[in-house]
Amino acid sequence: MHMPQMKAVGLHRYLPVNDPESLIDVTLEKPIPQGRDLLVQVKAVSVNPVDVKVRAPKQKTESSPRVLGWDAAGIVEAVGPDCTLFRPGDEVYYAGSITRPGCNSEFHIVDERIVGTKPRTLDFAQAAALPLTAITAWEGLFERLGISQRKADNEGKSVLIVGAAGGVGSIATQLAADAGLTVIGTASRPETSEWARQHGAAYTISHYEPFTAQLKQHGLTSVDYIFCLNNTDQHWEQMAEAIAPQGKICSIVETAAPVNLKLLKNKSAAFVWELMFTRPMYETEDMIEQHLLLNRVAEKIDAGELRTTLKERLAPINAATLRQVHQMVESGRTIGKIVVEHFD
What we know:
The chain is α/β, with parallel strands linked by helices. The chain has helices at about 50-55, 125-130, 130-145, 165-180, 190-200, 210-215, 230-240, 280, 290-300, 320-330, and strands at about 5-15, 25-30, 35-45, 60-65, 70-80, 90-95, 105-110, 115, 160, 180-185, 205, 225-230, 245-250, 270-275, 310-315, 335-340.
């Protein structure tokens, strides 16, 4: 029996991005959804730092092609027998799970509990820019840092977002400003400062200079919350100094060496991690929270309270285009999000 085929981009070996074998065009069997899985026809994908980290050179080979990609928007083609949230024809957006094949394929399997209804007012590329970063920003701000979503609760409160113009920063600044916080973003170039201010930062400071001296220039002696989206090791001491007594710091960037937690002790300050893959990876009981928060983000987009963080779109979805985007993301100088749309 002949199984239906689909195009995909994958890898057999983990190589530098300028090697044409680092990402290759492949043909795979079209998967069949089971349980609570959706089969999605992928229309657009985005590339995140996680793609670059997974693809990075290492001594390992894959016998069957490994497909990357953790940001997609598309149309539900088929549903597993236990699905209750979506049906064929629904337009969706999601990030997926790091423990399953990625979305750089014409059709993709994803658990419906981590999928949101695509914002009506966005096209597929604009929607594909959002899921991974929106989940990260939402969980980081409202769940890990415990910030209230009610404006009245946040009057006079401040958050410092380290790396405010990147993918997560571009949506985190908007969500924090929308929740009524004073947002201070770090940026190091005129264009990144401008982008951060356009997306909700009241002020920007440089992440290459001491934080507290710069905060004082804006009338702040400390900040209530810090959301670190860039190089935890480099900024650790600055963050420990800038955080208010009883404040909270959340980071999404793993440390290369142990950090000195003792710096937070006198302030009774908290440090917490955010990884948006935790819920799907461990299939936690509250996994459906990602479905719910993506729907809330879509409602806020459609109401004009948030906007897409898409900065650049490329086509088509193939190995050559994705290698190009990996190179751009690897440079560490991207602003907002880069999306690739359309299979040939």
